[in-house]
Amino acid sequence: MKLLKKRYRLLYSLLTAGLIMLSCSDKTTKDSIESKLSNLSGSYLGQEQPGTTPKIFAPGIVSTGLPERDLTISPDGNEIYFTVQLGRDYDYRSCIVCVKQINGLWSKPEVVSFSGQYSDIEPFIQPDGKKMYFASRRPIVEGVENKGRYSIWYVDRVGDGWGTPKPVGEPITGEGMVCYASITKSGTMYFTKMHEDGNEFIYRSKFVDGKFTTPEILPENININESQWNACISPDEDYLIIPSYVEGYNYGSADYYVSFRDENDNWSDLINLGEKINSPGLDFTPSISPDGKYFFFQRMNWTENLDGKILNYNDLVNIHNGRGDIYWVDASVITDLNPNK
């Protein structure tokens, strides 16, 4: 529980910073985003693709003065979804936002059709593009309060948009909180489940004959302590990225680790992704591009010394200090660590 409380204290700091930014810069931020999107085209929002050194993804468009997290991309690369999270302490609101490439040009970010009323986070488009999963605090039963807990929902692809949200339901949803769905090409879902005692572990559920099977908890060399969460599985199910805290091996309050899976369904021990990926803060939302080429991840930044600095608006937008941004890097920084190669 101590690790969990520490996680939420740091998350509180990130959310408060985002709320302040939203209140003082909404119109200017919109104008700035539209100017950056002018005639922008090409894959990945026309951004220069990274090598093995992480780069902030789409600064001023996706990574702005707001706390962003949870990025997912459609299989054709023409839609990019992410979460903008705002609020204070446990009473916060989050929205799922999308940018689309239409007729060769990228649109400005907009809240998706099914989000905006409740707190929605962690979009994930399954590899065939037919469904998007996400976590939400919306009531599962109409009129019955969800008591602040997240559960996993999905929307079906309908034309160039999405249908009405539906809860995944049993056997995924049960007692406790479930979140951060991540789906393999074969349809297996990996997700986080928080137990009634507050401990969080990574589970998976296979998709057989059109439905999910009874979830199984991953082994102890994945769930190594009382708090693992937000794990992301690679499309081919050959490695898993897990945010966790390992005493004596962390660069911050939570780091990204990887475990590799072999052909016999054995998992390697966790390997820390190192100081190039991890920050001194709280890092907790990994994702992989549909083609497996790039690793996207949220990280908090505490890199600039602001002592005595008089801040102007430009500083607020461009100093990525003490808030979450989305980064990306070539996925070889992960796959090269594979002991099975």
Your description of this structure?
With 341 residues, this protein is mainly beta. The chain has one domain: Neuraminidase (6 Propeller), CATH 2.120.10.30. The chain is 13% helix and 34% strand. It has three helices and 24 strands. The longest helix is centred in the first third of the chain and has 36 residues. The protein is globular, with a radius of gyration of 19 Å.
Report strand %.
Answer: 25-35%
Which runs of at least 5 residues are low in confidence (pLDDT < 50)?
1-6, 8-28
The largest sheet, given as strand count, sense and whether it forms a barrel, is: 5 strands, antiparallel
What is the N-to-C order of secondary-structure elements (H for helix, E for strand)? HEEEEEEEEEEEEEEEEEEEEEEEHEH
Total DSSP helices: 3
Secondary structure: number of strands? 24
CATH superfamily, called what? TolB, C-terminal domain
- Return the CATH architecture: 6 Propeller
Distance between the termini: 37 Å
Helix percent band: 10-25%
Mind telling me the C-alpha Rg? 19 Å
Q: What is the topological layout?
A:
Layout: H1 2-37, E1 55-56, E2 68-73, E3 79-88, E4 91-102, E5 105-106, E6 110-111, E7 120-125, E8 131-136, E9 151-158, E10 161-162, E11 166-167, E12 177-183, E13 189-194, E14 200-205, E15 207-208, E16 211-212, E17 216-217, E18 232-233, E19 239-244, E20 255-260, E21 271-272, E22 286-288, E23 294-300, H2 313-318, E24 324-330, H3 332-335
Antiparallel strand pairs: 1-24, 2-3, 3-4, 4-5, 4-6, 7-8, 8-9, 9-10, 9-11, 12-13, 13-14, 14-17, 15-16, 18-19, 19-20, 20-21, 22-23, 23-24
